[in-house]
Amino acid sequence: NAGVTQTPKFRVLKTGQSMTLLCAQDMNHEYMYWYRQDPGMGLRLIHYSVGEGTTAKGEVPDGYNVSRLKKQNFLLGLESAAPSQTSVYFCASSYSGTGGLGTEAFFGQGTRLTVV
Amino acid sequence: EDQVTQSPEALRLQEGESSSLNCSYTVSGLRGLFWYRQDPGKGPEFLFTLYSAGEEKEKERLKATLTKKESFLHITAPKPEDSATYLCAAHRGAYKYIFGTGTRLKVLA
User: Fold this and answer.
1) Cβ of B101 and A104 within 8 Å?
2) pLDDT digits (tens, 9 = 90+) for B39-80
3) CA–CA separation, B61 and B37 (whole Å)
4) Which pick of A35, A86, A116, B4 has the fewest CB atoms within 10 Å?
5) Min CA distance, B98 vs chain A (Å)?
6) Edge-to-edge strand ranges of the sheet holding B3-7
């Protein structure tokens, strides 16, 4: 019962390098999210997707791009990494809910990214 | 502006010493209040969902309650394994969760 799986778990990048973080979920959830978590700032939404082929900007989208070509996968790309992008990144997924009510999000184990 | 504030930031308890964590929210059109547990180096793990003022949910030593302005996570007779960071999040629709910064709980044996 995998749930939400993120790869890689750790990565060190040099300033200006690019990379892609992969998120896969096996719960058939419509919604998927990418968050970053920094000390004292809580979880902040980078981008999200409400279905295959759709993406939207969240709270802190600058410097990141995403794609959702398949329902179960959500990719987060950093085109030119900067030290300010040093953080822990979490992918999450959720059902759409019914009657306008939200449902709980399920999180991956996180990717710890350091940009030097 | 939608906001979720958790207090205290950190809490140290002796084993068996009950206490409560607070989550205050100002969110227009609340569509759910969620509690999560996060262990070091791990992702948040879902605990409870509350939808209506007056609603309560329980799981082992934890009980979550909800009013129109805040939610409490009550911990009864905690054990060292309850040590973690507890996060709350308000859902205001439009796929948006607003997270608090968490309460770091340490339970001493």
Assistant:
1) no
2) 999 999 999 999 999 999 999 999 999 999 999 999 999 999
3) 13
4) A116
5) 8
6) B3-7, B19-26, B70-75, B62-66, B56-59
